[in-house]
Amino acid sequence: MVAAISKNAVKLLGQVSTTSTGNSELVEPNGAGTTNTIGRAEMAAMAAAIAHSHNHVATDSLTSLHQIRKQLLYPEKHRHHVQGDILKILSATIRNFQSLIK
After folding, report:
1. Separation between Cα atoms, residue 38 and residue 65, nearest integer Å
2. HSE (CB half, 13 Å, CA atoms) of 67?
3. How many Å apart are CA 19 and CA 29, to the nearest integer?
């Protein structure tokens, strides 16, 4: 997670780094108000990594991993979750992924 700080606001960005090439990309989580959280930036970065066919994803966000697991196993419990939109995108991406994600 990366926080870009300006005079008037803090902009949260997710970061996807590829260790084999050394490339790094910033991901805009598109949160606003109560949805503009560090957890959302972490989940957006994971979604971007999976969408770009990376099947080894490392994160230190245990909360995000628990929320993703809960979305995959019990989607009905996240019907009114504040980050429900990104969790739905993540779960659909994971379900449609061709290989095992570690």
Report:
1. 13
2. 22
3. 22
First to last CA, the chain: 20
Q: Quick check: 24 and 15 in contact, CB under 8 A? A: yes
- C-alpha–C-alpha distance, residues 31 and 102, integer Å: 27
Q: Which long-range contacts (CB under 8 A, 24 or more apart) does 54-60 make?
A: 54/16, 54/18, 55/97, 55/99, 55/100, 55/101, 55/102, 56/101, 56/102, 57/101, 57/102
pLDDT reading at 10 higher than 80: no
Residue 51 · residue 94 · CB < 8 Å: no
What does residue 12 show for φ and ψ, rounded to 5 degrees?
Answer: -90, 135
Q: pLDDT by residue (tens digit) across 35-94?
A: 788 888 888 888 888 888 888 888 888 988 999 999 999 999 888 888 888 899 889 988
- Whether residue 7 is predicted with pLDDT greater than 70 in this model: the reply is no
